Amino acid sequence: MTFEKIRHLMDTLKRKEESEEITYYKKYLPYLFILPAIVWFFTIRVASLAYNLWLSFHSWRLIGEPKFVGLRNYQELFTDKVFLITLKNTALFAFGYVTLSVLLGLAIALALDRMVRWVRVTLQTLYFIPVVTATVVVAIVWTWIYDPVLGLLNWFLLDVIGLRQFGLRPIRWLGDPDIVLFSLILLTVWKNVGYNVLIFLAGLQAIPQEYYEAAAIDGAGTFTVIRKITLPLLKFTTAFVLVIQTMNGFQVFDQVYATTMGGPGNASMVLVLLIYLTAFVGEKSMGKAAAMSWILLLTVLILVILQLRALKQI
Amino acid sequence: MSGKKKTQIRKITTINLIKNVILYTVAVILALVIIIPFLWVIDTALKEYSLTLRYPPEWILFKPKLWNPENFSDVIKKYSLVTFYINSLIVATIEVISTIAMSSLAGYAFAKLKFRGRDILFLIILGTMTVPFQVYMVPVYVFVVKLMWVNTYQGRVLPYLLSGFSVFMMRQFMRQIPDELIDAARIDGCSEFQIYRKIILPLIKPAIATVTVYAFMTSWNEFIWSSIVLRRTQMLTLPIAIMQIYAGYGSAYQFTPYWNYVMAAILLAVAPSIVVFVALQKWFVRGITLQGLKG
User: Fold this and answer.
1) Residue of A nearest to B28 (CA)
2) What is the reported pLDDT for B1?
């Protein structure tokens, strides 16, 4: 009797131990799974962000210790003519780029949506190839196309179409401060429009056929259908495309670095290039660069929130 | 996604005909606008240098007799492209493997395991996706300098060992795996790591493909961080090398680049990304549209 009781007690105890072990193991195991990722994220993302903010209130040239200067970096930035021109250029570039690439992307997607499958898929793939090509490479290719003397574009406009007869002179696409931003926008749109086309096409294909059939029965023309059915149903897709391209627009760097380096003068100086030059070339003012990058971050965040609000996604 | 049959009663009316003509003319124009720059690159890459300086520019694509394929072997030798290829490959391999490993582990935890802080942590990771890379580049550079990792592979890959996108993709995909499968394995006595290795990994091949393509593209085309961290010629990756070939090698600044060499080098450098894209585009497209439709 007693033996049975003892054995029964020991069994119960052993089971309890085992289940505790399992719960202990189960409780902390997930953290092991996410540990590498969390360590990386915390160091490279979260701590970086915080350090960047801290650094923006200091002055530091990579030698010695950072010196606390409070808001001076920000003050100096907003009274610096070059910085203000840079902000203006970046905003202009982003605005032009986003508008053009989104509108074109949508138009092309609407056209492709109506085409036979093999044409649509081929064009979709073709349009995506520039997207997966390095931006620097695209920029260098377009520098060659934009060449004032030997370039393809001027040759096409002046001699193929014949605009030379109408008095047009060779255009200095990247050398004329008044059009350099436009030239940069154009090449970036060429590169990235395929991405927008892809997303818009996906959104378009998600619209049920019944809507279009009902509209056809009611006798609605093509443009009415687009305005009243297609576009409202694309609100989410449009919001996504706008947000992605706005971020792309404000983060522009590769193509300016590869073509004009901000020139002529400061006509194409953009924010990220200025950050790059401030931090890594010449004076290496880390604090100023950090301040600029926070201004970039805040600008992008505010714009994204505004856009999402406008499209009623938030 | 597609596969809807558009049941249309096609009336052969004049209006329909005109609409179709316009539509397909537009298609042709669209195709041309995108293709012509590429054709021009290939055309220039095949030219002997003196031909590139001619005006009006001559198209030699259809004149094989004028082709100069030695450009490609010349540019490889002259600019030691092989070194840069190897560097880009090493960097890409490290980044892809690291991303897949960390994101699938974390994705599994976020998708199928329960623990405190799970949702908050995931939200934070998602949130970091909205922050531009350029905001991280100054602090990470300071970090890399302090670690003395400038001009090293470690320094170059550090900010790209993982991405919010890959964690997001993995988690979304893994959520679709039926819980019963995992519970059955647990009852059978499998440890979580065994479940991860034997059950999850084989099932998430599409997600791995998507993340691989995405990480590879990011790595192969990366420029800004490479130009910050890699200064010694032997360590450069392809995008920077192309930049150097274009802007003049070393300190001597050329005013007119050797366009034929530049274009040849460009073709050699972008070939892998185009090949990878065309071969694996299904996964790439799926990843991007998933972001767009469910983001």
Assistant:
1) A123
2) 45
